[in-house]
Prior knowledge:
Elements: E1 2-4, E2 9-14, H1 18-33, H2 38-59, E3 67-74, E4 78-84, H3 110-118, E5 121-124, E6 130-136
Antiparallel strand pairs: 1-2, 2-3, 3-4, 4-6, 5-6
Helix pairs in contact: 1-2, 2-3
Amino acid sequence: xxxxxxxxxxxxxxxxxxxxxxxxxxxxxxxxxxxxxxxxxxxxxxxxxxxxxxxxxxxxxxxxxxxxxxxxxxxxxxxxxxxxxxxxxxxxxxxxxxxxxxxxxxxxxxxxxxxxxxxxxxxxxxxxxxxxxxxxxx
Length: 138
């Protein structure tokens, strides 16, 4: 795990699932230092883990030669996270709603659904290989 020092925390990791926990732990520790509510930390951590897993599995197709870059900015009021993979991207609007009867047994779409419901703001770049998530810390 490589951290690049700037005003924003930038972390670059290989496409290896073991880094999901390491990155989530690092961001959680930063939030704990700011005395953020444990429930908010849980929601942020779960969303970040899902975004990282999606980037590695769906974006980078588990190719360990490709990387995932995480951008994190925490201020007194909010956290902004972006997760960028090196894949071809996707159309988030085409992900089936996992709560609809015919999709309940399907394994895809749950991570995107969780992120949308746990974070305050979620957006994607046009290509679909960067997810931006924002959560109020108040």
